[in-house]
Amino acid sequence: MTKAVIIDDEPLAVELIKEYLKDYPEIEVVHIAYDGFDGIKAIQNFQPDLVFLDVEMPKINGFEMLELLDNPPGIIFTTAYDQYAVRAFDAQAIDYLLKPFSKNRFSQAMQRFLNGNKSISSEQEELQDGPVSRVVLRVKNGIKIIPVEDIHFLEANDDYVNIYTKEGKFLKNKTLSHFEKALDGSQFIRVHRSYIVRVGEISKLEPYEKESYRIRLRSGEYIPISKSGMPKLKKVLGI
After folding, report:
1. For the chain: N or C, fewer Cβ within 10 A?
2. What whole-number distance in Å separates Cα of residue 185 and Cα of residue 183?
3. Per-residue pLDDT tens for 128-166?
4. What is the dihedral of CA 16, 22, 25, 29, to 10 degrees?
5. How many Å apart are CA 119 and CA 102, to the nearest integer?
């Protein structure tokens, strides 16, 4: 028996998926979750083979939920928003169903899953998604949500990133290149191969050692700036 979990805050969408799944007796729905927190617990407890996952949900959204899982199962996104298709492609989802989806379209997604197809077609790449507004990560006592306006700067740490805020340093299992693409370029700039800084946190540019500079932040911290980062910084600051 193939185990499935439905994670969606819309009861009508849940009922539609359950109705369509009647054509697949080999699929057993072991849990239904109506928010991301419960969804994480369900995946950890039931270890499903397939998850039907909404994007916009209370507490944390579907993509933030996936980032908290080390080995996510097969994912079929079910959402009313087409702008997330690129992120679904990056997350190697099996398919991306736009609500309200037909039984025929649902069947196509199920055949993709049953045939072992691991990700949706690259034809979805042309759709665009906006910059992130917060970062969700795991901490010792649970889950931490950091609004991007609370970030001072980000520092590369191998395949991870250190995120610095007024509350301290947090570790996220993403690369600095990921954040360079995900954050709003008008608010964050990469000033060094190892650093991205929030523009609003910059206090001033100071000489540092011979023929080099460093950035002083409003928090009193210092971060280096490379020669390639200087033109971008001057452009953003208007100097």
Report:
1. C
2. 6
3. 456 888 888 888 777 788 999 999 999 999 889 999 999
4. 30
5. 20
